[in-house]
Amino acid sequence: MSVQKQEQELRVLVADKDSYARLILQDILSAEAGVQVVGLAATGDELLLLQKQRKADVVLLDFDLPHNRQLLTLKRLFSEQPAPVLLLVMQEQLSLEMMQQALELGVYGIVLKPGKGHYINYRSVAAEVLRKIYAVRESEQWDGERRLMLLQEVMQELPDKPRPRKRGSHLAADTIIVIGASTGGTQAVESIITRLSPDLNATVLVALHLPQSFTRTYAQRLQELTSLKVQEGREGLTLKRSCVIVAPGGRNMVVRSVMGDKANLRVSFSDEETATYDLPSVDLLMKTVGESVVPHMVGVILTGMGKDGTVGASYIQRRGGLMVAQDEESSTIFGMAKSAIESGYIDRVLPLAEIPHFLNRFVAGQHQVSATDSVA
User: Where does the sequence pass through the membrane (predicted)?
Assistant: First the structure.
């Protein structure tokens, strides 16, 4: 198995109640020259003791670890021996609240368990586990003290009470904003959407790397926080003003013209393969927006590991659209944004707190902010 080697070995502590799972995960990790397994834990108490003794760089932790009810082990780890955590979890255990709480407690990535039972086939997700283990280097959580400081800064003022939706929200938009994110993206997108103008003359399309059936709950949560109309994407949905459309988890949402009319865009879905296997694909959504004839378009790449969005950014910039990336300091993981910035397809690099205000000004000014201006 080939994974890019790092100069410094990553010290990993594996915590799983099942002895078979611990051995398989240890075998997968130990096969990598850049990874050193420094301990195996079967319970939360063992995990805390080992982490205190061996100071692992990453903890690979099973959600079903004994004594982790209501994320108790994560809470203890965070308060006593802070360390970045990659969480192994079954899809049916996921909820929006759990993911957000887990992120606050040190989880920087999640791997869905490939099945149930005693003999889970972890080798089928070995490449994903290794990729996400290495991704901790892109995360601010790599520095435990830095992470504690950042979490203290996370609390932000609640947005003003949503105002009534303005007339005209049923009309087609002449501006499309595409937002793409992965790890840490749910909170980042919330921070942006809650601060967008309630009479925004644009359609906002959101692609988050979330599991199937999870995005509907997320869209409902967003709707509680904004007066913009929030919907989960479905076939044939029209792109209207003051509307936020969240791509369903596990599917590649795109935009297509109706009856050959490129100005009449609707939501559709595609089975086209992309360079990254993450779903929904940010690249594919941005590509189809860039190939449309909508007068104004803005792409936003937020926190997340990997390179999804870099190819899509090229299509939007090629059409004269504007590309914005979240800066490293405010990102949970500076991977997707970093890749797009280094590719040269980004026009603005902004802290998360400044992105919604920038979008409001852009839409209200109808392109007064030039895409040819230099990167901040």
Answer: none
